[in-house]
Specification:
Elements (H helix, E strand, L loop, with lengths): L2 H12 L23 H14 L3 E6 L3 H11 L4 E4 L14 E4 L6 H6 L2 E4 L3 E3 L4 E4 L16 E8 L3 E2 L2 H7 L7 E3 L4 E3 L5 E3 L6 E8 L1
Parallel strand pairs: 1-12, 2-3, 2-4, 4-7, 5-8, 7-12
Antiparallel strand pairs: 5-6, 6-9, 10-11
């Protein structure tokens, strides 16, 4: 008997006297904390992103190409990883070598890339979290974990929700979900913060209107 079979057997024995038609537990969780307008929700997202040390920018859709060009230029990025269906016009002003997201990309190739630019699936205002689900404008999970600089574009207000329960309603649980709250960081026992341990050292979020 395997360990798995032994554990499942114990679970079945523990549940043997539980009626099959027992009513489910009622959990009256709040769907969001307080009532906010759309503009207030976007403001809360920006505040919490910044609180997690993400760098927040705002622009219109027409300003996005120039802003992305400026951000990558300021970072000194000579190469940028590009998801398969990132809107082409986003990077039309960018002067950098494109590294296209492919199954053949090696960790070493991605580690040499200066930046990655992606879209997102949804952004949660109350927690300052952006969620990636591997859609074509976001690419494979690894392209947002290996490069040291991630620029994530969030369309507001369409991709912004107040709370985690609202975000979960929009997400497919079978997809590879990555929940990101600020740049990668950890602290040792003396609370010395170290960034870039298991993801990008720098996270820039662009809130795009229009």
């Amino acid at each position: 008997m395997s360990s798995r079979e032994r554990i499942l057997g114990r679970v079945r024995r523990a549940l043997a006297d539980v009626p099959a038609d027992e009513a489910p537990l009622v959990r009256g969780y709040l769907r969001e904390h307080g009532r906010r307008s759309t503009a207030e929700t976007v403001e809360l997202l920006a505040e919490n992103l910044a609180d997690y040390r993400a760098i927040v920018h705002r622009c219109t859709d027409g300003q996005l190409p120039e802003l992305l060009s400026w951000l990558l230029g300021e970072h000194g990025s000579a190469s940028v990883v590009v998801p398969p269906e990132l809107p082409a016009y986003w990077l039309e002003a960018v002067d950098a070598t494109r590294i296209h997201d492919r199954a053949a990309n090696t960790p070493q190739e991605l580690d040499r890339a200066d930046s990655v630019v992606t879209g997102c699936a949804v952004a949660v205002a109350e927690t300052g979290t952006i969620v990636l689900d591997g859609s074509p404008d976001q690419g494979r999970r690894r392209i947002t974990l290996v490069p040291d600089h991630h620029v994530c574009v969030v369309r507001v207000p369409d991709q912004v929700v107040s709370s985690v329960p609202q975000a979960l309603e929009r997400l497919d649980p079978t997809r590879p979900l990555t929940w990101v709250s600020g740049p990668s960081a950890t602290s040792d026992i003396e609370l010395d913060r170290v960034e870039g341990v298991h993801g990008p050292r720098t996270l820039e979020v662009v809130l795009v209107e229009g």
